[in-house]
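hey so u asked for the seq, here:
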Amino acid sequence: MSQADRMLPSSPVDAVALYVVPTDGIPEPLAANIARALTRDTGLWIKSSTWAPSGVDEPFAGTNQYAAQDYLQLGTSLSSRLPDTNARTYFIVLTDRDINSRSRNFRFQYSVHSPMARTSVLSLARLAFEADGTPATMDALALRTQKMLLRIVGEMKFGWQRSSDPGDLMYAPIMSLADIDRTSLIHTLRARKLSP
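ran it, structure tokens below
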């Protein structure tokens, strides 16, 4: 009974702002490290969950890509089972599989978001390689992942708008690794607001 009570925060102040959810080939320790880094970078209370099965088993016919929308239901299903969540808690599902939207208007997608489901899915599949197919260094993978996660948090939790400045963290559209590597960790609108 006490465990059930623990699931409800005693105050909205106690609620976790965001959960990082590892699935597929993403290990729990990586998700925990990401949650700690995001807490440090954003000032929000961010936690990681235990590993969760995605339930996404079938790629699109003739491809190695999986429907990104199928991952979005994880946030909804976990929201009632994870401690310290409330109606504003957001979920970022991490996968090592290549994803695309069902419409497949693009060759692939790095991430897909559903504000209504309070969930985003981020694929690390393409972040782990260079454009020529060679493995990326751990530093390059870590920086790319940090940028993509901060973009999600900025847009979904802080309301940051996308930018046409290629050096801005919120530059859009992100169409390649070169686009990600060119961006900085700074959102210029935020920087302008902070400057005297």
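Confidence is low (pLDDT under 50) at residues 1-10. The helical segments are 2-6, 28-42, 73-79, 138-157, 177-182, 188-194.
lmk if thats what u needed
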